[in-house]
Design a protein that fits this description.
single chain; alpha/beta; Rossmann fold; five-stranded parallel beta sheet; two-stranded antiparallel ribbon; 9% strand; binds 3'-phosphate-adenosine-5'-diphosphate; Sulfotransferase; P-loop_NTPase; sulfotransferase activity; EC 2.8.2.-
Amino acid sequence: MANYGSVSPVDFPIPYKIIEEANNHLIEKPQEEHEALLATLPLQPSGTPNFHPKQPFILYKGAWIAKSLVRGALAMEQHFKSRPTDLLLVTSPKSGTTWLKAMIFATLTRTSYPLDQHPLHTHNPHQCVTNLERVFSTGRRQIIEAIPSPRVFNSHLPYSVLPQTIIDSDCRIVYVWRDPKDVLISMWYFSGKIMGGADKIATFEEVYNSFCQGVNNYGPIWSHVLGYWEESKQRPEKILFLKYENILQEPVKHAKKLAHFIGCPYSEAEENQGVVEQIVELCSFGKLKNMDVNNNEIPSMSAHNISPSYFFRKGEAGDWKNHLTQEMAERLNTIIEEKFKGSGLKI
Ligand code: PAP
């Protein structure tokens, strides 16, 4: 039997943090063999804001991605071996990652714990489901291999950057997108919390203009969404394509759809007992935002000291109306409608 450190193999995912702590002897020095390639990639245009002073965005396969995460993507391409039982949540940042991490993790583990003692009470969603390109960029590839199946990860990589192993294997992808105007606002506030004030780096207008040019974290956002949308039309059994606003509107319906897609549909008995509603409630914005575990500092989450509380702000649709002028909203809408033309997608 494979060696999982001190973690016993089970048939449901366990929080990534537990696996990492049990296997921290497997952490290596991050790879440096891709530095020559990284040095040749175009840097973000001057004048476009960046909230990571040491980490400019570089253009990799049509997407603006922070340098260390391109390093992670290259290491993934080289070393990651997808398993048919893997599940990957993909989002453009600020499109519902935290929420869907919780939903997927809770759905898969709902019979493994009483819901009032569920790991989501003691681990924030990002400690339950980790980001693949980030762990690969920090020398943790062997930990990824040590995780017993079924594994659940998230990624922000555009479809064009996913390693071939993910595209070729039978693993499944849940993709979530959100009105880009709300993504922009959410990103602005999140960056502000990290930097102790986003306007220390750039004005809101500069960030907006850059977003409209497609220069933002993993942007352009329209290419990100379209990449997964087009593929989900070809392979609906491979990619479940969801929208944040629709989940907000009908959470129970989407929770059932999600459970079905990830291979653990709710039984009639569960539905009658209200289990779907209980999972939706456990993962709801109000519930997660108020848990202690989502309000403590976890310095190891990134180079910055990110508190999990930063991932819970308003959790609503349409906050852009409080921040964008009508002209700004129309300009961004027009850009996106133009890009979406003929695809069947609407904001
Ligand atoms: P990430 O991609 O960096 O991990 P992500 O979780 O996608 O971030 O984005 C955070 C947004 O999701 C926040 O939106 P807001 O700024 O417009 O408020 C956050 O409030 C929202 N969010 C987090 N958890 C939930 C939830 N359980 N239900 C609904 N929205 C949520």
